[in-house]
């Protein structure tokens, strides 16, 4: 048995729903035909588990079409598969002339009803195009006028997910990924744009910033870089200004207490008062006019304390520009994401964690909320109005 055959035999034993698409791509690029056939069969048999993985959400359109059109695809029912297709995004003529005339749709009552409902929605949408105040129905998972939580990047991650906290199932969905992977980054929102600040590219600390436009589902890099290269920092927006707090000056380097403030209008960063203690892997968010710095690491110890800073835009005084201690968390948090939604703080992910906890400041306690699709170590978390 040669080296290639040995490797292929090993990879066959390692196939899982979370990696089978990547293994199949690897095998194809190295002309390992037997492994390609084995992976193809595994994918077709385990399709209903694979659809919840990150690899599936990153499939190119052509490969997704090939997979869905394979007659050997195993699903509990064709109706279940059809329910997940966003038929309301189809062109009306395609829905009427092609989908509704499909043999399965015509003979299966459930499929027929699903397509009929989509056709009715499209008729309503096209008949009300001259009324901009009308909401487009069922064409997206998110509705206009409410808040959505976004989880950005993570450990060697470019992926971005969003979730409606008021939704019935608390389901997370993928959107456009970052332009480059940003380990230990963090994010903030101003004018409904997400800013991903600093981080590390795997070798060097970054001072660059990416900006996300939810209307176009795109990331751009036209923001002035920070003054300090760092990672594992905390980032938040207060009064339309972005604060970059603490972090490391190297991958495992010196812990910082540096705080920088970004003026969106001037596209400029300036230094402001430092935090009371040096800390990294912290999370920062704004709630009730205060800037919260939660958890993190200091001298190798996970921190459960919470620090808050008063609003500088309305009450800023250089003589009182300082951080004060407030009630601590019940547990320390390393590398978690933090966002304020509807008067509560959501602590999301963290090192080797895939769950969400929510803090109610009125009741002064934390509780379990939901599970992510995958583990997000050191993610950035932001909140946008639904597009």
TrEMBL record:
Pfam families for the chain: BACK, Kelch_1
Signal peptide per UniProt: none
Pathways involved: Protein modification; protein ubiquitination
UniProt entry keywords in alphabetical sequence: Kelch repeat, Repeat
Segments traversing the membrane: none
Residue span, BACK domain: 20-100
Protein name: BACK domain-containing protein
Organism listed in the record: Haemonchus contortus (Barber pole worm)
Lineage: Eukaryota, Metazoa, Ecdysozoa, Nematoda, Chromadorea
């Amino acid at each position: 048995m040669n080296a290639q055959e040995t490797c292929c035999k090993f990879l066959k034993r390692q196939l899982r729903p979370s990696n089978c698409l990547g293994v199949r791509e690897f095998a194809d690029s190295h002309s390992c035909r037997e492994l390609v056939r084995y992976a193809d069969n595994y994918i077709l048999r385990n399709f209903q588990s694979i659809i919840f993985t990150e690899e599936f959400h990153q499939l190119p359109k052509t490969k997704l079409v090939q997979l869905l059109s394979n007659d050997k695809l195993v699903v509990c029912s064709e109706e279940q598969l059809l329910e997940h297709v966003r038929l309301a995004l189809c062109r009306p003529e395609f829905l009427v002339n092609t989908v509704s005339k499909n043999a399965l749709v015509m003979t299966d009552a459930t499929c027929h009803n699903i397509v009929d409902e989509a056709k009715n929605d499209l008729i309503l949408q096209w008949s009300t195009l001259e009324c901009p105040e009308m909401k487009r129905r069922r064409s997206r998972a998110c509705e206009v006028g409410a808040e959505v939580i976004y989880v950005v990047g993570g450990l060697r991650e470019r992926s971005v997910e969003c979730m409606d906290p008021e939704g019935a199932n608390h389901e997370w969905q993928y959107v456009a990924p970052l332009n480059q992977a940003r380990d230990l980054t963090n994010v903030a929102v101003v004018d409904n744009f997400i800013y991903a600040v600093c981080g590390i590219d795997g070798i060097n600390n970054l001072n660059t910033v990416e900006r996300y436009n939810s209307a176009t589902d795109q990331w751009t890099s036209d923001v002035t870089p920070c003054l300090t290269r760092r990672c594992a920092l905390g980032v938040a927006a207060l009064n339309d200004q972005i604060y970059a707090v603490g972090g490391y000056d190297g991958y495992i380097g010196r812990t910082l207490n540096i705080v920088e403030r970004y003026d969106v209008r001037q596209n400029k960063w300036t230094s402001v008062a430092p935090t009371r203690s040096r800390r990294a892997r912290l999370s920062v968010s704004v709630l009730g006019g205060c800037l919260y710095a939660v958890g993190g690491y200091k001298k190798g110890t996970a921190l459960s304390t919470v620090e808050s800073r008063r609003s500088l835009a309305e009450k800023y005084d250089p003589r009182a520009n300082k951080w004060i201690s407030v009630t601590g968390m019940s547990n320390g948090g390393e590398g978690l994401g933090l966002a304020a939604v509807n008067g509560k703080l959501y602590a999301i992910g963290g090192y080797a964690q895939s769950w969400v906890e929510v803090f109610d400041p009125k009741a002064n306690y934390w509780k379990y909320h939901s599970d992510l699709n995958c583990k997000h170590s050191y993610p950035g978390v932001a909140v946008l109005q639904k597009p």
